[in-house]
Amino acid sequence: MSKVAAPNKYAYLFEEIDAVKNHCDGDWEAVRGLLGGKGANLFDATSLGIPVPPGFTVTTQGCNDYLSGKEKFPTGLWDQVLDSIAALEKLTGKRFGDADNPLLVSCRSGAKFSMPGMMDTILNIGMNDETAAKLAKLTSQPRFAYDLYRRLVQMFGTVVMGVPDDVFEALITAQRRESRVLVDTDLDAKAWKAVTRRFKEITLTYTGREFPTDPFEQLKQATEAVFKSWYGKRANDYRNAAGIAHDLGTAVSIQTMVFGNIGDDSATGVFMSRNATTGAPALEGDYLINAQGEDVVSGTRKTLPIRQLASDMPKMYKELKQISQRLEKHHRNMQDMEFTIEQGKLWLLQTRDGKRTAQAEVRIAVDMVDEGLITIKEAVSRVQPDQVDFFLHPQLDPNALKNVKPIAKGLNVSPGAAVGIIAFEPGLAERWAKEEGKNVILVRPETRPDDVHGMLAANGVVTSKGGRTSHAALVARQFGKPAVVGVSEIEIDLDNHLMQIGGDLIIKEGEPLSIDGNTGLIYRTELPTQIPDFNDPYLLKILSWADDIRVLDVRANSDYPEDARLARQYGARGIGLCRTEHMFFEEDRLPIIQKMIIANSLAERNEAMIRLMPMQRSDFEGLFRAMDGYPVIIRLLDPPLHEFLPSAQDLMMELTDLKLRIQHLAGLKELDQTLEEIKEKTALLQRVEVLQESNPMLGTRGVRLGITMPGLYKMQVQAIFEAACRCAADGVDVRPEVMIPLVSHEAEFNLMREELEDKARRVMEEQGAEIPYLIGTMIEIPRAALTAGDIAKTAEFFSFGTNDLTQTTFGISRDDAETGFLVDYLQSGLIKENPFTSIDADGVGRLMEIAIKQGRATRKDLEIGVCGEHGGDPQSIHLCHKLGVDYVSCSPFRIPIARLAAAHAAMGIEDN
Ligand code: ADP
Ligand code: MG
Ligand code: MG
To answer: Which residues line ligand 1 (CB under 6 A)?
Structure first.
């Protein structure tokens, strides 16, 4: 018995899937962690009986032990590689390093999570002068043999030895000129032989080292190079951007080469099992006849669409289709595959779940349910709230995108597309947009709080610096502006009003730009945009399934009948918040409400209210009709009154003007008129000064207004119930819910409730109707949450005004915070999340929990909702579900997202 522990098992043959599963206790995620995604799927496909060229995988543990062990192979690793090569020789009947019957292999990188193109792969390992010469004879295809050889030297030279690829490409270009041919495929064996010789010379001069002719040495160095590429800059940057852990390591798959470049009965290609743009169930991809590996993606040759293979090689196409169906069924997802056809024999070289657009995701999920591949719950869980959001924002027209190349790429921080002309200054952006009605893209090195006006005026925002939590990113997301930030290729010259990309491309202010906030790509032209169809039948299906799963109901915040109709179309079941003040701001009403505010006597005030009542009544009628059969919550007037009046400063200036004018007036009539005006304005000013509060957010607003301005809320309730009676008379199912805002003490609520109920009953008696209704309150002040048990004695429903509740809980005003210190807090990472975007679970959420518990203890059937923007935020929706809220209410455009997020919450699936 030896005292030395047996070395780790670092290498597994593709056929040893059971051993790997055993090692990982059957956990497939662990298998992928160990073999990498590419490797694990090759093992899997092998076990399904799909033709995969034989090979083996050196585990990520091998990589990690190599990297942590001062870049030395850990004990046993190399021996296991040699044993595995011997196994491959047995399987293939060829020999590694035997020029008469050579086994050639590829050395492929592959981490747990796909990092496309970030690490390296080397093909045709095992080639050298002798093998090339013999293979040329053996196959009677000298061109093929020397093409393989030069590819190895080229890939090995760049990846392992560090020669820039440009050097090699320049040599090929020179050879083409010398041979008088236009494309690489026309170079013959002699030409490739010459190129290869020069490649090796260049490598020697460049690195001082010889290209290794010994196949084993090639394999060893290639394996090490793939290990090391894990910490390459490209891979590091990618992991940072994609949020992939740095300690996973890459696996290395060593695989028998198959050749797509051995004649016209050979080919290589990549394809998806469905259309990745639309989701339609048809193979989509490209291939090349007589080509190898990277040729298809490198764009050096014009590829053929995969459907042409159906006529070029019908048998191969049929087999490809069968394989793709097998793999889809097995993975229960759309597959992205690589294949090679070697002299009429099809080989699968890679498969993974395919990347796709939001539209495709939705359609594939629905189709796969119909095909019996996945369950309804799985389909609903696959679609992300973000992907639903896609259907509601303008997007760049995918057809137009086929013909343009992006000029740069940055971080995709705020979704949707924006098109316009470039402005480098926020002031200019605002002027162009507002005064000249132009579409503008604001381009800045970075943004600051003073730039917000320009960002708001622009259609989209681009910055050359900053990351996902930069000011520009935060503010753009906040206001739903498409944005791409951190486009490091862009260099902005503010003095000369231009930007440079990659040194030579110069773009001036006023020139067009299109940006795609979903992909982070930027285009130097005005591209057409389109709004995706919300009535996409597949999306409607997913959402209706989500409705069956979710527990939380979804209502809309709508102030106008038109919004309410839209909200209903998007799936709202009721209105959770109608803000009556919005109606007051309308042009024909503002003067009347101003009269009401500045009235000197009760009679004067009543007169104004009497005029307002019918206007409100018709607003409410419209809402009730639009929401026939669903509850409509109407919030009584909430904002401080000064918001309806001009500012004291403006009034003073106007008064000064008027007084100056008097001196120049001729007629007596004019004089009288002006004096009257001065009198009115002075009265208004006095009232404005009286109403001025040093902290209006915490001042006379909400229920405090209702109490201090007798008659106001009663008038609104009269309008609500008259409207309700009228609608009911027409057969509309009306369910008004009257909401009293900003209550902090049960006494406030009780006082108001009594008065209003009295009014409601009287209206219904007059109209001879009986309407079911509720009177409730908003919970938006900590004291209300803490005494919710008392308030619930008389309140029939609660609605959390989470915006104000966040302000009052944190003791901050949102307007000041979001353009000031809160941005600093977020940027420095002092706090992780903007509490106005996602409900602060630990503070605000805790208060909600208390209020819900107490409220329901007093009144079992208390209806509890959340209104405010949080109602459309997936993370907040998850919290609401957990707290047992009955419904969330949000703006019409967020309703589809809320429906899906509520279903995810019910299934316990996290939304990112
Ligand atoms: P990447 O992750 O960059 O796609 P791959 O390891 O998939 O790298 O390999 C690059 C290309 O070489 C792919 O087109 C792949 O199909 C091809 N390839 C890799 N190994 C072999 C092999 N043994 N025989 C033929 N082609 C191969
Ligand atoms: Mg690949
Ligand atoms: Mg409020």
So the answer is: 53, 106, 108, 117, 121, 123, 255-258, 293-294, 338, 340, 349-350
Report CA(268)–ligand 2 centroid distance (Å). 12
pLDDT for 275-332, tens place per residue? 988 899 999 999 999 999 878 876 667 889 999 999 999 999 999 999 999 999 999 9
Atom of ligand 1 nearest to the CA of 259: 25
807 C-alpha to ligand 3 centroid (Å): 9
pLDDT class of 1 with cuts at 50, 70, 90: very low
Cα–Cα distance for residue pair 876/853, rounded to 1 Å: 18
Q: Where are the alpha helices (DSSP H) in 180-232?
A: 189-207, 215-229
Ligand nearest to the CA of 739: 3
Angle between helices 602-626 and 590-598 (to 10 degrees): 140
Ligand 2 centre from 116 Cα, in Å? 7
In which region does residue 49 sit, left (phi positive, over 0), alpha (psi from -120 to 50) or beta (all else)? left
Question: In the predicted model, is pLDDT for residue 2 greater than 60?
Answer: no
Residues with CB under 5 A from ligand 3 (ion): 780, 801, 804
Q: How far apart are CA 623 and CA 773, in angstroms?
A: 15
Is residue 867 flagged as an active site residue?
Answer: yes
Q: Whose CA is nearest to atom 27 of ligand 1?
A: 293
Report yes or no: 473 and 483 within 8 Å, Cβ to Cβ. yes
Token pair recorded at residue 722: 């008259």
Please name the helix (run of DSSP H) or strand (run of DSSP E) that holds residue 735, with its range, or none.
strand 735-740
Nearest CA to ligand 1 atom 13: 293
User: How many Å apart are CA 588 and CA 744, to the nearest integer?
Assistant: 34
Nearest residue (by CA) to ligand 1, atom 24, is: 257
DSSP string over 389-431:
HHTTS-EE-HHHHTT---SEE-EEEE-SEEEEEEESSHHHHHH
Question: Looking at residues 188-200, what average pLDDT do you find?
Answer: 95
Closest residue (by CA) to atom 18 of ligand 1? 293
Ligand 1: which residue has its CA nearest to atom 17? 293
pLDDT in tens, 516-571: 998 899 999 999 998 877 889 999 999 999 999 999 999 999 988 988 999 999 99
Q: Count CA within 13 A, CB hemisphere, residue 236.
A: 5
Ramachandran angles phi, psi of 497, nearest 5°: 50, 50
Query: Environment class of residue 264 by beta-carbon count within 10 Å: exposed (0-12), middle (13-18) or buried (19+)?
Result: exposed
Whole-number Å distance between alpha carbons of 572 and 58: 54
- For the question of residue 582 being annotated catalytic, the response is no
Residue 680 has pLDDT above 80, yes or no: yes
Number of separate helices (H) and strands (E) present in the chain: 38, 31
CA 698 to chain centre: 36
- Residue bearing tokens 């009543």: 606
Pocket mutation for ligand 1, best pick of 123, 125, 262, 341 (most atoms within 8 Å of C-beta): 123
SS3 74: coil
Distance 206 CA to ligand 2 centre (A): 29
Q: Which two tokens stand for residue 588?
A: 């024909």
Rounded Cα–Cα distance for residues 849 and 844 (Å): 9
Residue 611 C-alpha to ligand 3 middle, in angstroms? 26
Of 758, 712, 681, 679, which Cα lies nearest the Cα of 602? 712
Q: What is the mean pLDDT of residues 14-19?
A: 97
Name residues whose C-beta falls within 8 Å of residue 132's C-beta, 6 or more positions apart in sequence. 145, 146, 148, 149, 193, 196
Name the token pair of 644: 């309806």
The Cα–Cα gap between 298 and 285 comes to 14
Beta carbons of 879 and 802 less than 8 angstroms apart: no
SS3 of residue 508 by DSSP = strand
Q: Which of 471, 870, 878, 904 is catalytic?
A: 471
In ligand 1, the atom with minimum distance to the C-alpha of 108 is 6
Residue 231 CA to ligand 3 centre (angstroms): 51
Q: Which two tokens stand for residue 668?
A: 């007596």
